[in-house]
Amino acid sequence: MRLSYLSGLAIAGLGRFPVAALDFYISPTGSDNNDGSSADASFATIEHAQGAVRDQISSSLTDNITVHLAPGLYPVAETLNFTAEDSGRDGFTVNWDGPGAVVSGGIEVTGWEEGSDGVWSASVPKGTESRNLYVNGQAANFARRKLANRKDFQFTSSGMTWSNGQYDWLMDTEGIAGAEVRFINSFTDRYALIQSASNRQLAMKQNTWFNNMWGYDTVAQPNADFGVWVQNALALISDGGQFYLDSAAGTVYYKPLDGENLTTATTYLGVLECIVSVGGTYDDPAHDLTFTGISFAHSTWMKPATVGYPDQQTGAYIGENSTYTPSNFESTRPHWFQMPGAIQISAATNITFSGGNYTQLGGGGIGIGNDANAHTSGVGLGAAHITVSNAYFTQIMGNSITAGGVQADAHHPSNAGMTNSHLIITNNVFYNTSSLFTSTVPILLTYAHHSTISHNDLHITPYSGICHGYGWGSNDAGGSPEYQNRGLYNFQPKYSDPTTSNTNLIAANFIRAYGHSHTDLGGIYTLSKSPSTFITENYVLDSGAYGLYTDEGSNSYTFTDNLLFNTGTWLAQNGANTDNNTFDGNYGHSGPTNWPGNSLIDNISQASVAVQRAAYRAGVEPGKRVNRPETSETGAADSIVTVTGDGQGVVTATISNFDDAAFEGVEFDVSSGSSGVTFTAEGEVPKEIQGNGDTVVKWKASGGGGSVKVSVGVKYTNSRTGEVGERGGSADVSL
Ligand SMILES: *[C@@H]1O[C@H](CO)[C@@H](O)[C@H](O)[C@H]1NC(C)=O
Ligand SMILES: *[C@@H]1O[C@H](CO)[C@@H](O)[C@H](O)[C@H]1NC(C)=O
Ligand SMILES: *[C@@H]1O[C@H](CO)[C@@H](O)[C@H](O)[C@H]1NC(C)=O
Ligand SMILES: *[C@@H]1O[C@H](CO)[C@@H](O)[C@H](O)[C@H]1NC(C)=O
Ligand SMILES: *[C@@H]1O[C@H](CO)[C@@H](O)[C@H](O)[C@H]1NC(C)=O
Ligand SMILES: *[C@@H]1O[C@H](CO)[C@@H](O)[C@H](O)[C@H]1NC(C)=O
Ligand SMILES: *[C@@H]1O[C@H](CO)[C@@H](O)[C@H](O)[C@H]1NC(C)=O
Ligand SMILES: *[C@@H]1O[C@H](CO)[C@@H](O)[C@H](O)[C@H]1NC(C)=O
Ligand SMILES: *[C@@H]1O[C@H](CO)[C@@H](O)[C@H](O)[C@H]1NC(C)=O
Fold first, then answer.
1. Does residue 325 line the site of ligand 5, with CB under 6 A?
2. What is the pLDDT of residues 410-438, one digit of tens each?
3. Are 370 and 354 in a shared domain?
């Protein structure tokens, strides 16, 4: 219909008029029998609109296509796949635009009924599989009980045994066979599956047990012990906030938290693992697509139900049911899998996801160019010119954003089309993320070049804030002596070429309240070599963990103008194979003092102007903070005033406005202690001070003699925040 309409226009020779953008409309109250050409004739489903868009693209494009999603819920039963066929062409883009639209990979659970012991239940279709129930937007936990003390157990090759009778209930727990044990360690959060319980032994399923018993920070030899739980059997429901899904029976059970009312609560089971996949092939990538203002919610991740979760670091795990070469754990390393995201982007270029909420996602949030095992399209890596901006992430179970892969093709691509580059993650808010897999992080960038992580606001996260690099130096040119000793190179090449990691920027992020569930972590954490990579103007706060942590093999990073006001040490360096990193102009609150050019201070006002400015501007850029959920001001001052005097009686005040907005109603007060000295402004005294820059005002003093101390006070209203600022400074002036 639309096609003939458009070609009709062309035939009629009306091409001299600007062609209107080609728009399609979708609404939850629309119908797929409509033609989608206006809000009154909206389609009902994204899938149907996708077909119409494909038809249009396959004929021709003379303008962008914009698909407008009306506000509301769009449940999708199958992953939405955007491939080359869905991509813009001839310089035009396909824009999916939907402020207020929520694309859901879940099923709503209704009809809750209260049972005995305060446990409620509801029916869902028999066979529904999910590891994630969300109640009023928050992740429920598994039905679980804590084991009082890991040290009461002996760990054997077949399972866990105990002699203390206080654990005998394990043998009497209905459903224990098929339940699982979770171990929270220093930097891992491991899950292992139970085969059976008898004779004071939990016999564990293989090979997940084997794979949780070797390597580093293991179930039997954790580097730190943050507890062990037995979980995922109905009989284990104990505290409020816990759930259990009986898939075969189609019944979900939940014990409400205090104050929660399941009659009125909104509850979803995450069902899809991948809600949206954007990906083509290396030869024919998906491209020129934007998603604006659209929210994504309600996914799950089922893999731990089959292989457990032999966690290695930040979402990488042993994902195959194999023991590799049992004499050496290093045999596993080249084969680690990645936890998939609910949104997956690979073999793709010129893709933007902007705005929207990413919430209640059961694995990762967004996976960009991960290894093939983390992409439902089956084609991993190959992500270039991908932007994720202005979005809000909360209640993501794993990494909120994983950019890059960890296997060989990620760091040494066998096909140039696999290389990840120009990934931009900017102005996003991450609030209370890594909600289930606590050893995951808001942002992980493994191997990519020319990529930027800037102006993100990270608030409340259990492990590190931003992680850059992977591989502990083992894949860098020349290899790592440490991994030579461990025997890794019996299982993979020792490379003579550098990895794809270089020329990245981590700037102006605000990272706070991190690391509350683990150890061995940093606000900003690096691994391996990455030449020309700058970490600058970040503000780290409110954590007892490390501020900056250059872990194993970190090499060629430059850290400048960061403010590390965490209470842990501002900088920790792993000595193993770590080299050639530069630190300059950084300010810490506590930690080492033997880094020339960097200082410890106890008040931001003691930092350089550049760092005070960075502290104010860190996180979402000031001008973009309005109406952003959970975004807050950093608490740093919005300006400083620097006063200087010269030998000719001239007083100069430089007002550095750190905000994007102007200061209004500006009043100056210039005075000196000496009577009889008067001041004449040179030029007009501004009543407004421009945003994000320096304004210089000069006065000429007269009437006195010798050297006098001159004070300049400035009072203003910040037009964005409405806050009144009063600053000042003084200098000696010779008359
Ligand atoms: C999208 O691709 C996945 C993986 O190939 C497939 O399972 C799914 O059915 C596809 N979705 C649709 C709507 O065809
Ligand atoms: C087409 O869409 C892109 C991406 O949203 C945008 O940058 C560009 O300005 C649009 N072009 C036109 C002609 O509207
Ligand atoms: C996104 O989350 C924020 C904060 O919870 C909420 O105010 C807003 O309505 C949400 N937007 C959508 C489209 O759900
Ligand atoms: C963070 O989310 C969890 C659920 O995933 C919830 O129990 C907790 O109260 C939340 N914390 C904050 C500070 O919102
Ligand atoms: C739960 O909400 C329902 C519906 O509003 C109400 O009738 C009921 O009294 C509430 N229960 C409690 C315990 O507040
Ligand atoms: C994993 O391998 C073990 C041992 O070979 C086997 O007993 C088990 O059934 C396998 N598990 C799965 C989920 O395939
Ligand atoms: C990506 O966008 C740029 C301009 O923004 C354009 O030059 C390039 O051709 C696009 N790439 C693809 C694969 O469409
Ligand atoms: C040291 O780091 C700089 C800056 O990234 C880089 O240009 C240089 O190549 C590195 N030198 C060595 C020997 O790695
Ligand atoms: C930091 O110094 C400023 C200026 O001297 C002062 O107003 C402020 O109270 C100090 N802040 C703290 C936390 O000590």
1. no
2. 999 999 999 999 999 999 999 999 999 99
3. yes
